[in-house]
Amino acid sequence: MSYNDAMSSTDLFFLRRCLTLACREEGSVSPNPLVGCVIVKNGTIISEGRHKGPGLAHAEADAISRASVARLKGATLYVNLEPCSHTDKRTPPCAQAIAKAGITRVVYPFQDPNPKTKGLSDKIFRDAGIDFSRGLLVRESAVVNRVYLTNITSKRSFVSLKLGTTMDGRIADKSGCSRWITGNDSQRFVHSLRFKSDAVLIGSGTAASDNPQLTIRYGRKRKPVTRIVLSREGRISQSSALAQSAKDHPLIVIGDRVPEKKAAILSRLGIKLITCDPRDWETLLAILFTQHQIGRVLTEGGGEVAGSLVRSGLADEIILIVAPKLLGDAAVPSFRGLDFPLSEAPEFVLFRKRKLGSDFALHYLSRRTACLPDLLKP
Ligand code: AOF
Ligand code: ZN
Predict the structure, then answer these.
(1) Which of 51, 58, 77, 151 is the pocket-test mutation for ligand 1 (most atoms within 8 Å of CB)?
(2) Model pLDDT for residues 144-195, shown as the tens digit of each residue
(3) Which residues pair with 38 in a beta bridge?
(4) Section 337-363 average pLDDT
(5) Exposed, middle or buried: residue 354 (CB in 10 Å: 0-12, 13-18, 19+)?
(6) Among 108, 134, 195, 235, which residue's Cβ finds the most Cβ atoms within 10 Å?
(7) Residue 234 pLDDT level (bands cut at 50, 70, 90)
(8) What confidence tens digit (pLDDT) does each residue in 87-97 have?
(9) What is the DSSP string of 146-164?
């Protein structure tokens, strides 16, 4: 069908509501997509639903279950991803449930790139006489599901690179001291970023100098987040906060030259070892997603990790938290080892900005992430 302006503005309103509902579950759904659904009759919402995590009801099924059988007949269903129709999975297929419920119109932005279900709902809807349309709110919906889309199209973890810096882009003073560049509000914000991720990753230099815990300690929602340390030789102090908490919070060391004795010590401490060259981001991110179900990894420093990720072109987004301070030339730079002429400088797209006390969080998407919608067939 083709849109007229009045129809599309109403449809946009309800699709935006789906995104708001979907985003409430950020941090809980991995490796699944963020999905919200609203069912509308005579211009009013009669039911809403959202997907709350793997194995739990899909957004459409959740919304259908909250409305009476009679009211569903002839209603319109909005959802921010093509409804699924495959059956070899944990939950029943949604397209069939929508048809069975007597819904007569379905609106969603784009097809689900999951090859098991992509495009299959068309026939189900056509056979049931359901009028379906897509193509609205594609960009916003793709950005909301950037983690899922990257996971499914590239078969690797999505990378959120976070750095706390001064106004002159320094992450520590010349003695290596970085506590604390950013303020309390930023601290809480970082814990919410950890919650939205499946793993938090640092280099062995940061592990040694900061002795961090990398757990979630603030905020309403808590979950065990996997901590990852990169070290070719498997260097991590047995008395460090990370090693000491490995029995309660999963800890992985990534290295390719870990001596057998060291590997035995790590195993005794409850630390998992992944044998991989930590400079080979492509292989590492593929292993983290396909073998460890890590959909989104948050990297928290330092400058070596940030520099090498940008060089590899695999920093999918960069979240800079900038404090109103200056440290000067001798202090530690944010991105080590980069050297681009201006004409080749990697460019990012500003996605969001947020004031955090006297700091500012600047959230940039890589060109690849910003272009994800171009990969999608509406
Ligand atoms: C979700 N939530 O609301 C929708 C999804 O293993 P399952 O049964 O949870 O199926 C997961 C797949 O279902 C997922 O990869 C995606 O293709 C499709 N749609 N998934 O988790 C939802 N609508
Ligand atoms: Zn479904």
Answers:
(1) 58
(2) 999 999 999 999 999 999 999 999 999 999 998 888 899 999 999 999 999 9
(3) 48, 78
(4) 97
(5) middle
(6) 108
(7) very high
(8) 888 889 999 99
(9) HHHHHHHHHSS-EEEEEEE
CB 85 less than 6 A from any atom of ligand 1: no
Can you tell me the distance from the alpha carbon of 5 to that of 236, in angstroms, rounded to the nearest whole number?
60
Closest residue by Cα to atom 7, ligand 1, is: 90
Lowest model confidence (mean pLDDT) among 49-53, 89-93, 106-110, 357-361? 89-93
Residue 181, both tokens: 């560049």
Q: What is the DSSP letter of 33?
A: P
Token match 């000067």: residue? Answer: 328
342 Cβ contact partners less than 8 Å away, ≥ 6 residues apart = none
Confidence of residue 1 (pLDDT cuts 50, 70, 90): very low
Q: Select which of 25, 48, 60, 317 is catalytic.
A: 60
Residue 233 contacts residue 262 (beta carbons within 8 Å): yes
Q: What is the pLDDT of residue 6?
A: 56
Give residue 106's pLDDT.
98
Instruction: Say what the alpha-carbon torsion angle 230, 232, 233, 239 is, to the nearest 10 degrees.
Output: -10
| Phi/psi at 27 (5° precision) | 100, -15
Can you tell me the distance from the alpha carbon of 315 to that of 365, in angstroms, rounded to the nearest whole number?
A: 9
Ligand 1 atom with minimal separation from the 148 CA? 15
Q: For residue 1, what are its two tokens?
A: 């069908």
DSSP 3-state assignment of 177?
A: coil
For 329, phi then psi, to 5°, come to -55, -40
Q: Which ligand 1 atom minimizes the distance to the CA of 31?
A: 15
Q: Is the pTM of this model over 0.90?
A: yes
- B/e letters for 11-37, b = 16+ CB within 10 Å, e = fewer, are bbebbbbbbebbeebbbbbbbbbbbbb
